[in-house]
Amino acid sequence: MISAGLDNYKKGLDAHCNNKFNSFCNRYANLLPPGIKQEMNQKEDAVAQLGFLCDQCAEAGLKIYLFIDEYDHFTNQILAHKEHERRYREQTHGEGYLRHFFDTIKGAAGDSLGRVFVTGVSPVTMDDLTSGFNIGTNYSLSPEFNEMVGFTEEEVRQMLAYYASVLPFRHSVDELIEVMKPWYDNYCFAIRRYGKTTMYNSVMVLNFVDNYIRNDYDIPDSMLETNIRIDYDKIRMLIRHDREFAHDASIIQDIVTKGFTTGTLMENFPAERINDPDNFLSLLFYFGMVTIDGTYQGNTRFVVPNEVVHDQMYTYLLDTYKENDLTFEQYDKTQLESKLAYEGAFKPYFAYIADCLKRFSSQRDKQKGEAYVHGFTLAMASQCKFYRPISELDNDGGYADIFLLPLCDIYKDMEDSYIVELKYCKSGTSDEQLNHLFEEASAQIRRYADSDIVRESVKTTKLHQLVVIYRGAEMAMCEEVE
Prior knowledge:
single chain; five-stranded mixed β-sheet; three-stranded antiparallel β-sheet; about 45% helix
């Protein structure tokens, strides 16, 4: 990892490479020409030192294997601050130092550099460096490597079966898979592998197993780990060149409220085009925020892979609202959530959400209508520790119910679960029209409540069927359907 500020990247790259080059010389001193380390250290910078090592190894008939990890680390740092875009271009275009560094690698590739393996997260920098490093093959989306990173379900089952054979597990493998699957599974990294297998996030799985064992073989209280959260400040600045959150936030809201979006998965793109719709969607894919879910009307279909990422999506949305001074009275909110889960007190909880939406929504937000109301409600509900909010599309293609799936495996004594039909109408809607909308929603929610996932998931809790209707930015109804 290169340690460098935004204005002294060359200094950081030189220091890091010098350290690695010296380790290389020490490790292979018995193979390298005598005096190579001392002569290398007389070269002025990393580019000159790398070129010297490559030349010396070529003369000696030696091949170097070069590994570059997190090649895009400095790119993320620079792109995280809009005012440093100019410096980013200086580093990666024309006579930029990083571009010169990759030119040196290109010149030695196939000669003294037998293999070069480069890894990173975003596809941005390599595209900007393409004329300086256009000899590589991008394997990121190759079907043959789809299962290279992460665990298949069979691998997870084998691991759980082993630990269950040597430790006093209280749950069967099937029971643990049932708990883990919605939270950690469902990644697909290659379009041609869709439908053949899905991948579990290996870090999440291992964290869960470790917490399960340390928790005296009981389901952990939280399925989330703070060390897997993405730096939202960095993402926000990566995807925006202003503070309006108009284009990208609407894409995320589209994913959250509809459950999917469509587009073209781009293999790479320049930083200056990062806000193009397909590029932004692809960036979400490379950051693990969406995954491949087949095709839809000729385009690649993307969904949020699991509930851990759903939580991150909702947090991102709430962060954008907080920038409009949305604050949470944590104690009051916690009490409302507890009464929702244990006393069936749903009206105060949804009134709180409605009050937040009304007070802190911008005029532009209100113009988005149903999509915004639905996304805001989902984002707020996701912060309630007792439930996992699930949203789907109804058969008519509109925005459907929100099912607050009770986390009974964690909170075994909770008493209430909810399915919510959320409707929106314009501020000028009459009371008569509102009552008609309520009757329509009541019929829909009875049908939703009879679905398999609801019947199986409520377990011992009492299911409340709610109709919530917004008239403009105000909640006009919040009633239970008998």
